[in-house]
Write a structure and sequence with these properties.
The protein is α/β, with parallel strands linked by helices. The protein has 24 helices and 18 strands.
């Protein structure tokens, strides 16, 4: 018997060791890459192969059932499990029931061959045919899975399977034909299949590597695709996104951020945050500039913590306008926890911030309007009774002066009483002006002429150290305004400018000019209104180089009765009156003041026509100062340093020079006057006043009695004077009934506040004149002379 070429026990021991290493290696691959099918099956296949090799190794020293049937079945099962591993790798079905059935059939046949037909040839033939069948099925799966032969590892495994099948067929044929001893053939076959198994394991490992490479490529493609999608998403976001490195250089910036900052793509590639700190300084929500440690980037860089909902402004773009953003910032760390990037996301909230500012302005305007409405209601309620009281004081004091000798000391006391009453009357007028309840006599007005007259009045109240300058265009567009009230506005502003100089040398400048309705200096709302009306704008500015105003004063300057002057020098109604008059003329007032640098008030009024409507000669004269205003006006009457105007009227005359408006001068033609007022004091005063003038007065405090007197004697009266605001029936109601009884009777109505509606209603009722109540007593003689004559 020839000696075997290879030592069978040694080969079996080597095969067991190799299978153990294979089992461990594929088990590790399965644990590391559980998503890859195959390594688990191949590990189990190696373990089952160990069982088969151990059975063959123990042949002769162990029961034949284990060494023969179990060993052959285990080796065949190992090939079957390796095939299942290949199918798992190729994602093909692996029915567990069929696998268990196949293993049972293999064991049963091997047992039959051992117990029934104890023929080694049959056992080896069955083993070889079964193995060939498994190899053929594996080749079929490879061909179906890679029909285009793109995977070299699968193609190599296919050819290895062909080689194994050929070797098994040769072994099956050579043993009976060539009479090769079974042990010799078995040792040769075992050595060959050990090499083939090693090569198969290498190919299985290559397949795992190929699958990992595939998944890596797929993951990279997916990552690239997600990066492209993310980049596209970020690029098309309406929100701005900026990614910065810790060295403050820009990594990524999207279109919205570039547009917000006014950057182009080239600037964005080389941009750093440092220029932003210099050229586009960040601004806090309160309008103050951020210091370095408040900048969101610096805070994230220092703390490593995210920041949320920070509102900041930045001067960006070609126009360097402040734009506002709602910003979030967070750190992006690497795998070791180190700061990799700082990511900014922000939304442009400029329009929202402007809307909020506009809302705040509207709230302030509403608050101011409510204050004006409340004060107007107060004025309407107080003016009637208060004017009656003041009128009685003034009238009786004047009558008392007439009854005294010229040198009497009591005349001086009466003069002080009259002065105090006139101050009270002026206060009521200011309240009515502030609440816009005094009448407007609006006519075509040249603001340049009004400014000139105002400055002539101011000359008498300023020192030679103060330079008064007027800059006015030669031909100004006319405005529809009340000259008296506009003069009061300009005089109030001039008085405040004098007070702001605090007795120091300085400059007060009045500037009047025409502006087109689309001029950037014109407030937006007024610009829209003037464009819609087809007219332009006339601007008046009053500026001084005085002390200026603090932020707190600027916020409260239009509040009624708020003043920074010492007690006795101001009522706190100057600027509220200015605001009320300007708004009553459909104008806008703006103020710019800096503490220690001065203040400028700018008034804008809609003109009555457009610049294009002026003649060529007029347009040529625009901007040329008028001859009557020499730029810097001479100061002829200096006053002491630190003085300021308390009112627009000159100082009261001395007692010796005083001449009463109600001086006793008998009328040339006596008239019968019917006077109606619910105040007994005024009835007594007016009767005395008119009777001293030689008139006959019939006075009533009850409306029905006055109407009944006219009904009984319709032609007995030459004039009827009636108060407007009376309980029960108003003066207009009385006038209507009286005029129905005596249509030719002149009727005048006096009121503490006169509106356009009241004047229109009085005119419709047939009233000849509406007299302002604060001037009513002093004007009665003139009204009687004019209407009753």
């Amino acid at each position: 018997m020839p000696t075997p070429l290879f030592d069978l026990p040694t080969l079996l021991a080597l095969r067991i060791g190799v299978d153990a290493l294979i089992a461990i290696a594929f088990w590790a691959l399965m644990r590391r890459y559980p998503a890859i099918g195959g390594p688990g099956w191949w590990s189990v296949s190696a373990l089952v192969s160990i069982v088969g090799s151990a059975g063959l190794w123990l042949r002769g020293s162990a029961p034949e059932f284990f060494t023969v049937s179990m060993a052959n079945s285990a080796l065949t099962a190992s090939a079957l499990l390796a095939w299942m591993g290949l199918r798992s790798y190729l994602h093909l079905p692996r029915p567990p029931g069929w696998i268990a059935l196949a293993l049972g059939i293999l064991l049963a046949w091997q047992t039959v061959f051992l117990l029934v037909w104890d023929l080694p040839v049959l056992r080896q033939t069955f083993f070889a045919l079964t193995s060939i069948a498994i190899i053929v099925l594996s080749m079929r799966d490879i061909v179906l899975s890679d029909p285009q032969r793109r995977v070299p590892e699968l193609q190599a495994l296919k050819w290895l399977s062909v080689l194994e099948a050929s070797a098994l067929a040769s072994f099956l044929v050579a043993t009976p034909v060539l009479k090769v001893p079974l042990d010799v053939a078995a040792s040769v076959a075992l050595f060959f299949f050990l090499l083939a198994r090693l090569l198969r394991v290498v190919l299985y490992g290559s397949l795992v590597t190929y699958r990992l490479r595939q998944e890596g490529d797929r993951a990279r493609k997916d990552l690239q695709s997600r990066e492209v999608e993310l980049r596209t998403l970020v690029e098309n976001l309406s929100a701005g996104v900026i990614v910065l490195r810790p060295d403050r250089t820009v990594v990524t910036i999207n279109t919205a951020a570039r547009e917000f900052l006014g950057w182009n793509e080239e600037t964005a590639r080389t941009a750093m945050i440092e220029p932003m700190a210099r050229d586009w300084r960040l601004m806090r929500e309160d309008g103050q500039w951020m210091v370095r440690h408040e900048v969101p980037f610096e805070r994230v860089l220092a703390s490593g913590q995210p920041m949320k909902s920070v509102v900041m402004g930045v001067k960006a773009g070609a126009d360097k306008q402040v734009r506002w953003a709602l910003c979030n910032a967070f750190p992006e760390n690497d795998v070791l926890g180190g700061l990799r990037h700082v990511v900014f996301t922000f939304v442009d909230v400029t329009s929202l911030k402007e809307a909020q500012d506009q809302h705040r302005v509207l709230e302030q305007q509403l608050s101011q309007s409510q204050k004006m409405e409340a004060l107007g209601t107060l004025a309407g309620g107080v003016a009637h009774d208060f004017n009656n009281i003041l009128a009685a004081i003034l009238g009786n004091a004047d009558l008392a002066r007439q009854d005294l000798e010229p040198g009497s000391l009591a005349r001086e006391s009466l003069h002080e009483i009259s002065t105090a009453a006139r101050r009270g009357r002026e206060l009521v007028r200011q309240i009515l002006a502030f609440s816009r309840q005094q009448p407007l006599a609006r006519t075509s007005l040249d603001l340049g002429h009004t400014v000139g007259e105002t400055c002539r009045l101011l000359r008498t109240a300023i020192t030679p150290q103060i330079e008064l300058v007027v800059q006015a265009g030669g031909v100004l567009l006319p405005v529809r305004a009340d000259a008296t009230q506009i003069g009061q506005v300009l005089l109030n502003l001039g008085t405040n400018a004098i007070y702001a100089l605090e007795g120091r040398p300085g400059r007060i400048e009045y500037r009047v000019e025409n502006l087109s309705n689309d001029d950037a200096r014109v407030p937006r709302e007024l610009s829209k209104a003037c464009q819609a009306a087809g007219v332009d704008v006339v601007s008046v500015s009053v500026s001084d180089s005085g002390c200026g105003m603090t932020e707190g004063t600027l916020k409260r300057m239009y509040e009624p009765f708020f003043t920074t002057k010492v007690v006795g020098q101001g009522t706190g109604l100057g600027l509220p009156v200015v605001l009320g008059i300007v708004q009553a003329h459909d104008g806008v007032i703006e103020v710019d003041s800096r503490l220690g640098e001065g203040t400028q008030f700018r008034l804008y009024f809609p003109a009555m026509e457009a610049l294009g409507a002026m003649s060529g000669v007029q347009r040529d004269k625009v901007g040329t100062p008028p001859a009557s205003l020499d730029g810097t006006m001479p100061l002829d009457l200096p006053v002491s340093s630190g003085s300021a105007l308390s009112s627009a009227t000159p100082n009261p005359p001395s007692v010796q020079q005083e001449k009463s408006a109600m001086a006793e001068t008998p009328s040339a033609l006596a008239r019968h006057i019917l006077y109606l007022d619910d105040d007994d004091t005024l009835v007594f005063l007016v009767r005395r006043l008119l009777e001293r003038r030689g008139h006959r007065v019939t006075a009533f405090t009850d409306q029905r009695e006055a109407i009944e007197a006219v009904r009984q004697q319709p032609d007995a009266f030459h004039l009827m004077l009636t108060d407007y605001n009376m309980p029960g029936m108003s003066g207009l109601d009385v006038a209507r009934e009286v005029l129905a009884l005596s249509p030719a009777l002149p009727v005048a109505v006096a009121s503490g506040y006169i509106t356009d509606e009241l004047q229109a209603e009085a005119l419709a009722a047939g009233v000849r004149e509406v007299v302002f109540k604060t001037d009513a007593v002093e004007s009665f003689c003139e009204v009687v002379a004019r209407l009753a004559g």
